[in-house]
Amino acid sequence: MRLKISELPLKGARLLEAFEAEDARGRFSKFFEDALFKELNFTVHEVFASMNKKNVVRGLHFQDPQPQARIVWCPQGRIYDVLVDIRKNSPTFKKWHGVELSGKNKLGIYIPHGFAHGFLSLEKDSYVLYLADAPWSPESEKGIKYDDPALGISWPGLTGKPIQSERDAKFGNFREEDAY
To answer: Bridge-partner residues for 99, per DSSP?
Structure first.
């Protein structure tokens, strides 16, 4: 009954697959285990959840100088989850990767320090669970415009203008000085 973990194209990022069993009673899922946290050298400091309308874009968020690594799951609904490597000395610097997370595909994602992160809600009532390895720090919170042309992120399923927070809508394009 182990979770599966595999490499993603961005150095240090991981794709996670929950254990799941289904029978006449319904579905039983396992999203977390100590062995996973040890392998990722991840200690949970905070857990957040969001319920999202369809066409909501959250992000792209990161913290500096107090970075957070995150583990993200979408146990209900569907999201298109995007991470961007903003570590200036990384071989995958300024590259992005997106993956659909949903209750049906049982996939999650591990986002290391030095990445910006965001997602698009593809369905009404998409529930997203985030585990963070460091406290949220309003003073360290930063962001990048979801549609920064220099990053060229494709947002499949986005229809028209997304629903965003006022803060996220004011984010600028990625600046080299924001790199880790």
So the answer is: 81
